[in-house]
Design a protein that fits this description.
Blueprint (H helix, E strand, L loop, with lengths): L3 E11 L39 H13 L7 E2 L2 E4 L9 E4 L6 E2 L2 E2 L2 E10 L3 E4 L5 E4 L6 E7 L6 H18 L11 E10 L8 E6 L2 H20 L7 E6 L4 E7 L9 E2 L6 E2 L2 H10 L4 H12 L3 H8 L2 H13 L5 H19 L10 H12 L5 H14 L3 H8 L7 H14 L1 H8 L4 H13 L6 H12 L2
Parallel strand pairs: 12-13
Antiparallel strand pairs: 1-10, 1-11, 2-16, 3-4, 3-15, 5-7, 6-7, 7-10, 8-9, 11-12, 13-14
Length: 468
């Protein structure tokens, strides 16, 4: 009997709020200066009292509704006691037995809970003898999502994490940027034979998708090899060494009771009424899974094409608005030029498509001009580049620069004959079987026409004249 991996994930995501979880300090993940966004409350000065951030609570409820979780009418905060230099109070305000969300699922993986807590500060390790603490991050609203142990492979763990990140972004409750530490993943991994679960090892602080896949895959392999050699797996926490691509044991794992949870005495219990739940439910956007299915059905796109669009909500919205504004262009042609040309320009400039000067309606009209034959592919690319730079609509650019495609057969024929007359070597090469010579001739003709020729018509005319 083969060993069977069992994996559960714990995922933290910093919420996108104006202020911190229990005080009015600015929640700014991009602040580079240390200890700027701090106050007596998030620094845990004696005698201060926390106040609950309403938007953070609503954000977690939104995620719970989006993932089909149950929102209990009663919830509360707890103190999770542990001591570490980046934890100002010596305890973390979190939730334990009465979280904001219970149950739900994502990608077929059942969820145990989603709860709300505050983030810790950030340690900056210097020399062997000292470390510095930046408390800007201390007190930032932090969502924690815990899955059931339903995941069976590193690929499944990776897919789940990606889909959760996308969902958080669609809901607008977190940027979940792993490079900035806004989303961190911990994986509980065990392997066993039969129905019994093995001894789990928890890998902490996985801060990239590459690390998730690498660490989970390596730990599964390590445990299987250890058990095969008769080595017992010890319950522990582990880290992931990106340099050696190996996990390493950090310490023996504490159980939940080691944290000495107790109800937070400085915060009242949360009462979540039905009206609030329904208001938040109405505010939910179309989620990635539903959008994928609809795009495939309405626009006849493949799953791979849909994945490209849905991966960024602003791109999906730009595409859909362009399709709705198009009069002649097909959804497939709009997809092709959006993903290859427009996104190519956006990526080159390092900005999001919604920040560009190109409006969906103008992009749709550009592809209409291409579809109807007013522009050829090369001219369309040139017009798009000018739209990007100026924000002008395509009709104005085409009129101003006289870019309408030449389709008159007699005009094209005269250019073809002229090119044939002055390119005798290329003619000879073509008749000797050199196919590239034909492309050379077409290129010369396009240059003569300032890019306004129809390449297919030119090809047919050249072939017809050169076959005589």
């Amino acid at each position: 009997m083969e060993y069977k991996p069992t994996i559960g994930l714990e995922i933290h995501a910093e919420l996108k709020t104006k202020s911190k979880m229990f005080c009015d300090c600015l929640n700014d993940p991009d602040e580079k200066r240390p200890n700027v966004n701090v106050c007596p409350i998030c620094l845990a000065h004696p005698g201060v009292l926390p106040t609950i951030n309403k938007k953070a609570v609503e954000s977690v409820i939104k995620l719970g509704l989006a993932l089909g979780g149950e929102i209990p009418a009663h919830s509360k905060f707890d103190r999770k006691n542990y001591f570490y230099p980046d934890l100002p109070k010596g305890y973390q305000i979190s939730q334990y037995d009465e979280p904001l969300v219970s149950g739900g699922s994502l990608n077929g993986v059942r969820l145990t809970r989603i709860h709300l807590e505050e983030d810790t500060g950030r340690l900056q390790h210097g020399s062997k003898d000292s470390s510095l603490v930046d408390f800007n991050r201390a007190g930032i609203p932090l969502m924690e999502l815990v899955t059931e142990p339903d995941i069976k492979s590193a690929d499944e763990a990776l897919t789940f994490a990606k889909e959760l990140q996308l969902t958080l972004r669609y809901l607008g409750i977190s940027d979940a940027d792993m490079e900035k530490g806004q989303m961190r993943v911990e994986a509980n991994i065990s392997v066993s034979k039969g129905s019994d679960l093995g001894t789990k090892v928890e890998i902490k602080n996985l801060n990239s998708f590459q690390s998730i896949k690498g660490a989970v895959g390596y730990e599964i392999k390590r445990q299987i090899e250890s058990l095969g050699e008769g080595i017992k797996i010890v319950q522990a926490t582990a880290g992931w060494n990106t340099t050696t691509a190996e996990t390493y044991i950090q310490r023996i794992k504490e159980n939940a009771h080691d944290y000495r949870y107790m109800p937070e005495p400085d915060l009242p219990p949360l009462e979540v009424n039905a009206d609030l739940i329904e208001r938040l439910r109405v505010e939910l956007p179309e989620l990635p899974g539903a959008k994928r299915k609809r795009f495939m059905k309405e626009y006849s796109l493949t799953i791979d094409q849909v994945d490209v669009l849905v991966a960024d909500r602003s791109v999906a919205e730009f595409y859909e608005e362009s399709v709705s504004e198009a009069e002649k262009a097909t959804p497939q042609l709009i997809f092709n030029y959006l993903t290859s040309d427009l996104l190519g320009i956006a990526n080159t400039h390092g900005i999001n498509i919604k920040e560009s000067k190109v409006e969906p309606i103008d992009f749709a009209h550009l592809i209409d001009l291409l579809e109807e034959g007013t522009l050829n592919s090369r001219s369309a690319k040139n017009v798009l580049a000018k739209m990007w730079a100026t924000g002008l609509d395509p009709h104005s650019i085409v009129k101003e620069e006289n870019l309408i495609q030449v389709t008159d057969v007699e005009e094209l024929k005269s250019v073809v004959l002229k090119i044939i007359e002055v390119n005798t070597k290329a003619i000879k090469d073509y008749k000797n079987g050199k196919d590239s010579a034909l492309q050379f001739l077409i290129g010369k003709a396009m240059a003569e026409l300032r890019g306004r020729g129809n390449p297919e018509q030119l090809k047919k005319l050249f072939e017809a004249h050169l076959s005589k």
